[in-house]
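As noted in the main text, all predictions were made from sequence alone. Below is one such record, for Zn-dependent hydrolase.
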Amino acid sequence: MNQQRLWSSLQKLATFGASENISEEGITRLSLQKEDLAARKYVIELMKEAGLSVKVDVVGNIIGSLKGVDQTKPIVMTGSHIDTVYQGGRFDGALGVLGAIEAVRSIKESGIKLQNTIEVVSFTDEEGTRFGTGYIGSKAMAGELDETILQLRDDEGVSYEEAFCQAGFQPERYKEAIRNKEAIKAFIEMHIEQGKVLEGNNLAIGIVTSIQGPVWMEVTFEGHADHAGATPMNMRYDSGLAMAEVMLDVEKIATQYGGVGTVGKLRIEPGGVNIIPGISKFSIDLRHIDKTKRIDMVYKVREAIHQVSNKRGVSAKVDVKKSVDPKVCSPKVMEAIEEACHQLDQPTMKLQCGAGHDSLIMANITEMGMIFVRSKDGISHHPKEWTDTEDCAIGTQVLFNTLVNLAQ
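Prediction:
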């Protein structure tokens, strides 16, 4: 594989949605906005340059194919996403898409004839940052997309359906994106680790054994906005303090169960320095590798919300925006990745994945596995997210060998 070609493509993709000071303010490339649409065109160009046949399905998944010798055999699929969070980094998702293109391009250039067709996929809206839910492309492919998602709106009031249509896609035909389970042999996703385990063990590559499934909740407390100076403390219905209490409860509950919990998005109305908060809206992200414990975490958080609501005399509304079960990776795919590392004399280790990925959804329709690539200082979803050139190349070479192992 061509290390410089891969690195150049990663740096080029990073320009779409980049701030003027990318190392401090990062990249914002939200799904179906102009930066994302421009980046999509670049990915299509790269796929065509790699000699792949390219199609885009009705929900915007970009699919590049390298035809196998036997068209009757199920395909081997690889890929990730190119949308980002607010002020995100250069490698999250991007390495899995561009590395896959480079790996398949290198297979074609090497003259290797594979029995199975390989597909490289850039999935639509994995992050869910714009509309508050994610995995849209992979859910459509797995037959799990709920049409009610199309009515969700972003912060500007634009609905998902409107955004799709403005981008030239056909969301009303989303069922046409569904893939036959029998037609896919395996799905492999290469991704930066987004944690510190590999770096702490001085390893460039990890083999994922299981993936935590997230639950996203949006909570709204409604009290009463009053004058900050004229309203005594014992006569307040302060939604902001209710939110603050629940934030601490989330931390306590997640710690108690050995999971993780995050409150990452907050909005207070009216939002004046001298006004008691009337409405407070915030997100909760709960994750655990054990489904039963995650269910218990969600129950405890809901219980805490109810108790705080009663205590402070504010109403509470809870909307579940996303709920994905944890998944165990396929032993067959893990073996193929492990064999690839052995072929390359590349030391590795097995580890769990704490972040959510399209692999969580693809596991519902095929054998699934993930290759982790070392992250510097474990930083991700941040402008300083970084993975060294050499590590990107090593991960892509492991992916190359894994694809050959599965498709030959």
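The chain has two domains: 3-212+326-407, 213-323. Residues 291-312 form the longest helix (22 residues). These features were considered when defining construct boundaries for the mutagenesis experiments described in Section 2.9.
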